Amino acid sequence: MSDTIGILGGGQLGKMLYLAGANLALDMHLMDSMSDGPAAKICKQYHIGDFMDYDQVMKFGRDMNVVTIEIEKINVDALKDLESEGVKIYPQPHLIAMIQDKGLQKKFYEHNKLASSRFKNYKTIEDFKIDLSKGEWTLPVVQKIRKGGYDGRGVNILKTDSDFNTAFQADFLIEEKVAIDKEIAVITCSDPSGNIIAYDPVEMVFDPVNNILKYQIEPADINAEQVTAAKDLAVSLSKKLGIVGLLAIEMFLDQDGEILINEVAPRPHNSGHHTIEASQCSQYENHLRAISGLALGDPATMTPSILINLLGEEGHVGPVVYEGLNEILSISGVHVHIYGKAETKPNRKMGHITITDSNIDRLKEKYETVVKTIKAVTKS
Q1: Going residue by residue through the chain (380 aa), what tens digit of pLDDT does each one get?
Q2: Which end of the chain is more exposed for a tag (fewer CB within 10 A), N or C?
Q3: How many angstroms separate the Cα of 297 from the Cα of each of 19, 60, 217, 233, 321?
Q4: Could you tell me which residues come within 8 angstroms of residue 284 by beta carbon, excluding any fewer than 6 positions away?
Q5: Vertex 110, ends 238 and 151: CA angle to 5°?
Q6: If we measure between CA atoms, which residue out of 261, 265, 238, 236 comes closest to residue 251?
Q7: Pairing verdict, β 349-356 and 334-338
Q8: How far is it, in rounded angstroms, from Cα 1 to Cα 25?
Q9: Cα angle for residues 307, 308, 312 (degrees, 5° grid)
Q10: Angle between helices 102-111 and 93-100 in degrees, nearest 10
């Protein structure tokens, strides 16, 4: 527990990592270019710096025993060089580099015979049109940029030829459009000795317009065999990667009952926010345990939960006000996490709310009340 831990990123995930580590008295330093980011308000050892800048990452990392991330968009070359100098980097830099590129992700699944949708990488939309004309593909298909996509950005559904006008023009992949029954996610956590734990699957419901998580529920509405299959697939992927720390695996359950890997994130993830209140040991604490050489915590679910992303309301840009906050705080089992961002804008993640209750019907009733009541808006 004497390691000095450096965290690249000071957003809400960095804030929640810091809060979890404080309970274990871990020596944590964070770096982000945001001087007023969510973690800056609580972290005494907060460094202003650009985690995409090679020299700044090197300077920050050389003072640490362990470096980890809360975002994949990071200078991997610096992490590789820090690793060569003896700094422990978790997740490992070569895995971050691979996961940054969705095309390489898919090749990894294919090479390791891990279930995922059919895909092909392309340089230009004209190359895809040639394959389309040959009958290799049938519209609709999913187009994803290989690098830089985040929270639903960087994804297109190509339904007709007219969609080519707004398609990404270079370095993308095409995926077969899966007939989705449900979208689920499993989070694993692995330590350097190869021990792995897996959280129970959550079921995710996305906004069809913005393609951002609307809410999630745990337990997922899937049968026991599907729960086991999803967790086994997640653990198998984690083992094949050899990753240290968290891995969030988003999956599709298709209409034939098959579970397919969609994509992964090697860091704390939105689909694991609920573990703070609903699990024996949260994703944040388990990640810090893993990279610090501490025993992994029990991931078992203690109570059913629904998680809501608190998003900025449409038509509101500026200093944030939380309408209905006092009303929802009076409801038993409602756990509010406000990230501390000063300004709101449409669909910006301003916080999240985890609702817990042993009774699923009551849980859903509370959800309906909360989602109608709380709003992130600007002053009128």
Answers
A1: 468 999 999 999 999 999 999 999 999 999 999 999 999 999 999 999 999 999 999 999 999 999 999 999 999 999 999 999 999 999 999 999 999 999 999 999 999 999 999 999 999 999 999 999 999 999 999 999 999 877 667 899 999 999 999 999 889 999 999 999 999 999 999 999 999 999 999 999 887 776 677 789 999 999 999 999 999 999 999 999 999 999 999 999 999 999 999 999 999 999 999 999 999 999 999 999 999 999 999 999 999 999 999 999 999 999 999 999 999 999 999 999 999 999 999 999 999 999 999 999 999 999 999 999 999 999 87
A2: C
A3: 16, 29, 22, 21, 37
A4: 16, 17, 19, 20, 21, 268, 275, 276
A5: 65
A6: 261
A7: antiparallel
A8: 8
A9: 155
A10: 110
Q: Counting every residue, how long is the chain?
A: 380
Determine the Cα angle at 198 with ends 193 and 204, to 5°: 145
CATH code for the structural domain at 118-176: 3.30.1490.20
Amino acid at 204: M
Q: What is the largest CA-CA distance in the chain?
A: 61
DSSP character at residue 221: S
In the block, which residue shows the tokens 């300004």?
343
The letter for the amino acid at 172 is F
312: β partners:
376
Residue for token pair 């095409």: 174
**Residue 82 host element (H or E):** helix 76-84
CB 187 within 8 A of CB 281: no
Residues 260, 54: Cα–Cα separation, whole Å: 36
Backbone angle region of 203, left / alpha / beta, with phi > 0 → left and psi within -120 to 50 → alpha: beta
Tell me the two tokens of residue 292.
């610090």
Cis omega (within 30 of 0) on the bond before 304?
Answer: no
Domain boundaries, the chain: 4-89, 118-176, 180-378
CA distances to 12, 68, 261, 279 from 275, rounded to whole Å, are: 15, 20, 21, 5
CATH class of 4-89: alpha beta
Residues 297, 320: Cα–Cα separation, whole Å:
36
Chain-centroid distance of CA 367 in Å reads 22
